[in-house]
UniProtKB/TrEMBL annotation:
It comes from the Bacteria. The lineage of its organism: Bacteria, Pseudomonadati, Planctomycetota, Planctomycetia, Planctomycetales. This is Uncharacterized protein.
Length: 116
């Protein structure tokens, strides 16, 4: 196994997909009650849809920059499709979560366009 594969495996153990999906499900279904206010208007997200983790990253930064070193995870609400240009589109919306190095949720954001 290469060093990069070790890193990817470690990233999955530090920030499991299950944790990220649990957080996005709680936000969408409980806190937002399936409704997100977008620039284009109210977006209603039905219950029981797919949540697809499309990106996870460990970001190394100085403590006084942004959130300092942290994890970032991007989830496609409703799943994703790849356009011919390779750009992902979410069925509904992308949700981005930032976590501390210890795995505590810092904040989140959502957008219709891919944040990748």
């Amino acid at each position: 196994m290469t060093l990069a594969n070790n890193y990817l495996s470690d990233l999955d153990s530090w920030l499991p997909d299950e944790l990220v999906i649990e957080d996005v499900r709680r936000f969408i279904e409980i806190e937002a009650k399936g409704k997100l206010e977008m620039d284009s208007g109210l977006l209603v997200i039905p219950a029981g849809i797919v949540y697809e983790v499309v990106s996870k990253a460990l970001i190394k930064q100085e403590p006084n920059i942004g959130f300092g070193s942290c994890f970032r995870a991007v989830v496609a609400v409703g799943g994703s499709t790849k356009q011919s240009s390779g750009i992902l589109k979410a069925l509904f919306v992308f949700v981005t979560f930032w976590y501390t190095i210890s795995g505590k949720l810092i904040t989140m954001d959502y957008a219709e366009e891919t944040p990748l």
